[in-house]
Write a structure and sequence with these properties.
elongated; DNA Binding (I), subunit A; alpha+beta; two-stranded antiparallel ribbon; 13% strand; 167 residues; 3 domains; Wheat Germ Agglutinin (Isolectin 2), domain 1
Length: 167
């Protein structure tokens, strides 16, 4: 057990921040007080710290890029199976719920104005119930949206999208 120098509460060692220069490797402040000290320091010096970070990013651009590239190449195999598995699951779900859509039906969809704003510019086709949420890839589940409406709707249902837009 150890007593925190800020709050004065006696806590177990695992509730204290680590500090390698100290004799026992444990800092004088508990994790909660240490976290609050960091937040206070950030609040008091926010502009200075942001400028310092910005200067570091500018001065060490090449180093940062190399570190990010090494990290991506090092972790590529670790993340790839998850990505592939996700893609396979989605492809299987789409394949099971895909129906033949005629070119005539696609042309009709593209000739309609945006379902939401009425624009005839930058048309795209969207699923009313997104495929990622269990919707079918069929003509009955498709509407015409302009690209801006489509990207703001994302993978939400129309009701969810309207609700989010009205708030």
């Amino acid at each position: 057990m150890k007593t925190c120098k800020i709050c004065g509460i006696q806590k177990s060692f695992n509730q204290f921040a680590k500090n390698s220069p100290s004799k026992n490797g444990i800092g004088p402040y508990c994790l909660d007080c240490n976290r609050e000290r960091g937040r206070k320091r950030y609040r008091d010096n926010k502009e200075f710290l942001k400028e310092q970070q910005r200067q570091y990013r500018i001065n060490n651009y090449d180093t940062r890029i190399n570190v990010e590239r090494k990290s991506r190449s090092k972790n590529k195999e670790k993340n790839r199976p998850t990505k592939n598995e996700r893609q396979l699951r989605r492809a299987k779900a789409v394949k099971e719920k895909t129906y033949l859509i005629l070119e005539k039906e696609i042309r009709k969809l593209y000739s309609d104005p945006c379902f939401i704003c009425g624009s005839k510019e930058n048309q795209s086709i969207d699923h009313i119930i997104p495929v990622s949420r269990g919707g079918n890839h069929s003509i009955g589940n498709m509407i015409t949206l302009c690209r801006s409406c489509n990207s703001s709707k994302n993978a939400r249902l129309m009701v969810e999208w309207y609700k989010a837009k009205s708030q």
